[in-house]
Amino acid sequence: MIFIISIVVIVLVIVSISLAYFKFKPPQLSLREKVRAVAMQHGISNSTADWLVDNFKPSAEKYVDNPDELVKILYLRERNPDLAFNIGDVSYKDQIFPNIQPAEKHLKLSEEAIRLGYAKPINIERNGINLVGNVTLYSPQPIEDVWKAVNVTQLNPEIVNDFNNPNQHMNVVKLLKYIPEIEGYPLAIQASAFAVDNVVYKNNFDKVKGDDYIWQYGIRSAIAYVINLQNSGKIDVLNGLNMQNKTLQRLFLEKAILPVELTTQNITSGGHTDPSFDVFIYNVTPNANLNGSQPQEWLGNILRKSIADKDELYDLAMYFAYMHHPYVPWPNSGNAYKALFNTAKNVDELSLYVIGIPDALRYPNPKPVVPEITEASVPYYSVLVGRELGYPTVVYTAPYPDGKGFEHDEAGVWSDKMNSIVVYWCDIPAFIADYQNSPIEPNLKRSWNFGEYEIIVG
Fold first, then answer.
1. What DSSP letter does each residue of 144-156 carry, written as one string?
2. Are residues 47 and 119 in the same domain?
3. Is the peptide bond preceding residue 366 cis, with omega within 30 degrees of 0?
4. I need a labelling partner for 350 at 20 to 30 A (CA). Which of 91, 124, 255, 286 fits?
5. What are phi and psi of 421, to 5 degrees?
6. How many domains does the chain have?
7. Can you list the residues of the chain whose pLDDT is less than 70?
8. 410 lies in which domain range?
9. 285 domain residue, yes or no
10. Residues 6+ away with beta carbon under 8 Å from 445
C-alpha cells in the first residue's frame, strides 16, 4: 500500500511540475522582438531594429543570434540611414561577390563603411558602394585611397559604367593613387581601368616583379606620359572623342592611353613580339642611349619634328599612306580608299601620316630610323604613332580573297575632324564586293586587345 501511495505521489509531483512549466513557460520572442532587444542593449532605437526586419529580413534572421555582427548593421543605419539602405539594396540586388550570400554582403559592406568612416551623414550612391565592395572585400586598400576613388566616382559616375569585374574597380583606386594627375580626366580613368586589366593583368605582368613595381615603373610611366602630352597641348583626346558611341569611344581611348602594342613593339628597334613585360618596361623607361629620353618620348620627338618641318620623312609618310596598300586583291576597296585619301588630305592630313609613317621609318634613307619594322608589323607600329599624336588607332584584319588562308592587316585611324575611321577598308559594300568571286566569305575584324577580335563583317 505504501509503495502504491509513493508512486501516486511521484506521479502527482511530475504532473504538477509539468503543469507549472507549461503555465509559466517563457514566451517565444518574435524576430522583431529579438532584434529590438539587441538594439536596446546597444542604445539603438526600435525604429532602426524595425527597419532591418521590414527591409532586409534575411540579414536580421542570419545575425539575430550573433549580436556582435547584427549591431554593426544596426549601428550604421542609426548613424547614416540613407547609406545603410543603399548598402542593403546593393547587397540584395546588384551582381557583386557572386559567391557570397546577400546577408553576408550586407554585413561585410556595413563593416567596411564603418571602417572607412562613412557612419556619418554622407550618402554614397550605388556606384560608390559597388566600388567599395569590389575593391575592399577582394583586396583591402588604405582608407584614404578608397575615399578618394569613391569621391571621384561620385562626381563622375560614368567612370564605372560597363565595369564587369572587381579588378576594374581596383584599378580606379590605384590609378588615382599612382597617377593623381589623371583625376581631371574621368573618361581617361574609365578607359585606363579597362586597359590596365586587358594589357597588364591579363598578361600577368604583375607577377614578374610584383604589383607595385609594374604600377610604378610601367603603368604610371605610360599613362602619365599621355596625360602630360594632353596637358602640354600636344594631343587633345582625354576629354573625349567626336563620336556618339560611348563604348567605341572608350575602346579608342584605351588605344590612345595604354595600347597592348606598347608591350609588343620595341619602339626604337621596331621588333615585334607577343605581349612582353620587358618590352613594356623598355618603352617607358629613360634610356641613356637616347640622351635620357624614354623610347616613347624619343618617338614623339621624331614625329613632331617631322610634322613641323614637313621634311623628307613626312613626304615619305604621305607617299606610303597612298601607295603601300593591297589595291590588286581588294580593287573595290582600293577605289573607295583613294577617294577617302583625297578627302582626308584636305581635311585631316595627319590621319594619313599615322598610316604611312611606319613605312617611312623603316625606309633606308640612307638608313632606317627604326630598322626592324616589318611590312607585317607596320599597322601595329601605327598604333604607337597614333598614341603619340592623339590619333587613336586600331588594327583591322581581313583574309585575302584568293582563299589561300593568308590575312592582311591595315591601320584604322580615328579622325575627330572627319568624324570617321580612316582605313583602307573604309567602305563595307566595296569590301564585300571584293569577295564576289572569292571561294571564301568576306570577313573583316579589328583587334582591340592581343588575340581578341571584334567582327565587322562576317
1. HHHHHHHHHHHH-
2. yes
3. yes
4. 286
5. -95, 125
6. 3
7. 1-27, 94-99, 120-123, 136-140, 143
8. 301-457
9. no
10. 396, 397, 398, 453, 454, 455, 456, 458
Is residue 17 included in any domain, yes or no? Answer: no
CA distances from 223 to 109, 208, 293 (A): 32, 20, 16
Q: Hey, what's the cell of 69?
A: 555582427
Which class for 243: exposed (0-12), middle (13-18), buried (19 or more C-beta within 10 A)?
A: middle
Strand partners of residue 447:
395, 453
The amino acid present at 16, given as its one-letter code, is S
* pLDDT of amino acid 5: 56
- The helix/strand/coil state of 341 is helix
With vertex at residue 396, the alpha carbon angle to CA 391 and CA 397, rounded to the nearest 5 degrees, is: 160
Task: Name every residue whose Cβ is closer than 8 Å to that of residue 30 and which is 6 or more positions away in sequence.
Answer: none
pLDDT score recorded for residue 142: 75
Q: Is 226 helix (H, G, I), strand (E, B) or coil?
A: helix
Residue 324's pLDDT is what?
87
Apex 418 CA angle, 225 and 354, nearest 5: 45
Alpha carbons 251 and 187: distance in angstroms, whole number: 11
CB 255, CB 383: distance < 8 Å: yes
Q: What is the pLDDT of residue 73?
A: 93
Written as one letter, the residue type at 62 is: K
Q: Are residues 242 and 344 in the same domain?
A: no
Query: Do 431 and 400 meet the contact criterion of CB atoms below 8 Å apart?
Result: no
- In this structure, the answer to whether residues 81 and 214 fall within a common structural domain is no
Specify the pLDDT at position 365: 78
Sign, CA torsion 100/102/103/106 = positive
State the Cα–Cα distance between residues 127 and 246, nearest whole angstrom.
18
Q: Is 410 helix (H, G, I), strand (E, B) or coil?
A: strand
Give domain status of residue 230, yes or no.
yes
- Residues 452, 403 within the same domain: yes
First to last CA, the chain: 104
Are residues 363 and 348 part of one domain? yes
Whether residue 108 is found in the same domain as residue 36: yes
